[in-house]
Amino acid sequence: MPTYADIISIGDELLYGQTLDTNAHWISGRMDEIGIKVKRRITVADDESEILKAFQESEDRSDIVLITGGLGPTKDDLTKPLLARYFNVSCILNESALADVTEFFKKAGRELTEANRQQAELPANCTKITNRMGTAPGMWFDERNTIFVSMPGVPYEMKTMMDEIILPRLKQKFVGGVIHHRIIKTIGIAESTLADKIADWEAALPPHMKLAYLPSPGQVKLRITTMGNDKDSLRAETNQQVERVLPLIEQYVYGYDNDEIESVIGQKLIQNEKTLAIAESCTGGYLSHMVTSIPGSSAYFKGSLVSYANEIKEGMLGVDSQTLEQHGAVSEEVVLQMAKNIRAQFNTEVGLAISGIAGPDGGTEEKPVGTVWIAYSDSQKTTAKKFNFSKSRVLNIKLSALSALNMFRIHFFSN
Predict the structure, then answer these.
(1) pLDDT number for residue 292
(2) Interval 156-189: pLDDT, tens
(3) 314-339 pLDDT per residue, tens
(4) Same domain, residue pair 343 and 291
């Protein structure tokens, strides 16, 4: 029987969009690692009725309720008094918590205030969880067959508490569950097309194995998830399914799990002892940023030229002026020269080039916003492809860079 958890994040600032709730994301990952399935993540305002309602709903549906936020020393911090009300108990002074907060202020060279002293008053039915990074102790409740855990909203306080105390206790209490994921990463294929290609394979998956499509700009991840008691058997069973689906989509697959397209091409360049140079226009250096975000990229990336203006394309990159005048900067003829010339100038085995109209202005009827030409060049061939992306400047830049990396993958990996 799986163990289920709810995560409740409390705070108006999360709902106003002033603070990003990274806590729930991080906690979900930790729960997954120990085989506890998160069923729901809830964000609740600093409102008494809404918080109490969230407590009740989560208790009704889950084995564990993990709460962050609302434990500070001010009047808008409602979590502790509402937990006391929810369990119909009073808050009493916890001597261990008082000793902790007194020592915290002593080390900081500050005087203990009455508001901070009151942080040591905890619901009578809870077990104190030491917060060695801050002043607000956590609280562990084991009531009515449900575990409630309340933690500070400050991320580094919450994470320390989780790693050092809460996760070990949860693993000890809830033994045996394993959640195993395998992620297949694809690029250059639409989600609907991918689904059509693997429809029969997906329909034949065993009932305990679930497939999720996780699309992002230019990419789709296939996540296979299975639950059980033995990690090795789950891994073996999942790998068998990966082997069955690969022949259907192998031409679009660039990696697995934590692989990123930029790291995969870097590994391939290192393996083949080849180097890369890039000429960019509409992406403004974004492609080079992706390539150099990988540690050790200096082993294969020699550099780039952001030839945003035509005079830079002509004067520094060596693009023919007549070609620019006749065909325009966003053209097959120009981008082919960009890729070939950057490779020659930087003395690399591979050159990549991008020229396009990112928008929101600059488009024409013949070349609307989102028109992008990308070229690949090596000693055997120089080839280009036209893409028609979106009306969004940010999205066009990202899609152009990803498509250039995919173009590299297609041509370089086939050599």
Answers:
(1) 98
(2) 999 999 999 999 999 999 875 789 999 999 999 9
(3) 999 999 999 999 999 999 999 999 99
(4) yes
Contact of 23 with 158, CB cutoff 8 Å: yes
Q: What pLDDT, in 10s, does the model give residues 77-115?
A: 899 999 999 999 999 999 999 999 898 888 888 888 888
Are 345 and 400 within one domain? yes
Residues 120 and 220 in one domain: no
**pLDDT (average), residues 265-285:** 98
Strands 146-151 and 178-187, bridge-based pairing:
unpaired
CB atoms within 10 A of CB 70: 25
Structural domain ending residue among the three candidates 256, 275, 300: 256
d(CA 101, CA 107): 10
Threshold 0.70, pTM exceeds: yes
Domain count, the chain: 3
Q: What is the pLDDT of residue 50?
A: 97
Q: What is the mean pLDDT of residues 345-362?
A: 97
Which residues constitute the domain of residue 301? 261-413
* CATH classification of the domain holding 224: 3.30.70.2860
Among 149, 173, 197, give the residue marking a domain's end. Answer: 173
